[in-house]
Design a protein that fits this description.
about 190 residues, mainly beta, four-stranded antiparallel beta sheet, 10 strands
């Protein structure tokens, strides 16, 4: 990956979005224009959780420019989701030292958006967080590996965490997969 972009750095407006606003954008009221709250930083430059998570992600994955021939890694995901919503997504990256970094998350909805049952909207129903449960997932690999888990969204940030690890063997790790990114560093431990 040469470059990626995140829109946008700083909120364009101060105040809370949807505070006394109808659900539909209102161009005559700056608080209700329907934009202005997509920043990684608040209007007063205070970091939002997304800013911290992105900063942590960069620190964990950064590497000086290196030329190397990427390898391959065979893995299998097995989940015991039961009735829990489960939609695994992942990205596998490799650094020049041969370590792999598996970014994995449960791509489920975590928020019910605001709604309105009338037009014009006079009494909007505010959005709310959904209750979610982590899903037990076993990730198996061919060959012996060692594992380090990071949770860039959590307070642990760039420090390894055991909060999501259920168990490990020499060729597998079982985690409680949340609806946010976990990074699993996979190091080949030899034969």
């Amino acid at each position: 990956m040469v470059r990626t972009f995140s829109y946008e750095l700083i909120d364009e407006t101060k105040g809370l979005p949807l505070a006394d606003c109808p659900i539909t954008p209102n161009p005559t009221n700056p608080q209700c224009k329907g934009y202005g709250y997509y920043g990684l930083l608040n209007y007063d430059l205070k970091p939002k959780p997304a800013f911290t998570a992105l900063m942590n992600l960069i620190q964990i994955l950064e590497e000086p420019a290196a030329t190397f021939e990427p390898g391959s890694l065979t893995m299998t995901l097995t989940a015991n989701a039961g009735p829990k919503p489960y939609k695994p997504e992942y990205v596998l990256l490799e650094k020049s030292d041969g370590d792999y970094y598996l970014e994995i998350w449960n791509d489920i909805s975590v928020f019910d958006p605001a709604t309105c049952n009338s037009s014009p909207c006079t009494n909007p129903v505010p959005g709310k967080d959904k209750a979610t449960e982590n899903v037990p997932v076993i990730i198996s690999f061919s060959g012996r590996q060692s594992f380090t888990v990071y949770a860039p969204n959590d307070a642990s940030g760039v420090k390894p965490t055991g909060a999501y690890t259920r168990s490990t063997t020499s060729n597998s790790i079982e985690i409680n997969l949340p609806p946010e990114v976990l990074i699993i560093k996979i190091t080949n431990a030899g034969a």
